[in-house]
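S1.2 Input.
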Amino acid sequence: MVYLLNTEISEHKKTEVAIQQIFGIGKKQSLQICKQIGLTKKSSIKKLNNNLKNKLIQYIEKNIEIGEDLKQQLAQNLEHKIKIKCYKGQRSRIKLPRRGQRTHTNAKTTKKI
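S1.3 Output.
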């Protein structure tokens, strides 16, 4: 296991897939990061030298909001929605689905009262 940006990443996975384990980075962003840094699709985290690892970490820290910062921002957005009493805020306050799903027969996990 390798630690990158406070996240445990498997050494044997390809870099595209391994980067996705960091909270806030998806498939599309991982492909974009690999292109920007110049990593091949077949390279694994284990085979990267320290220079490339540092480049990867610096690029992610500069250009993408990840981890605890992103979680904090999402929580602030939700608090703001609750505060201004918009639809999504009201639905999340009473623990119902926020995106228009039906609640008559679905949403048993969100609807637990």
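S1.4 Remarks. The first helix runs from residue 15 to 19.
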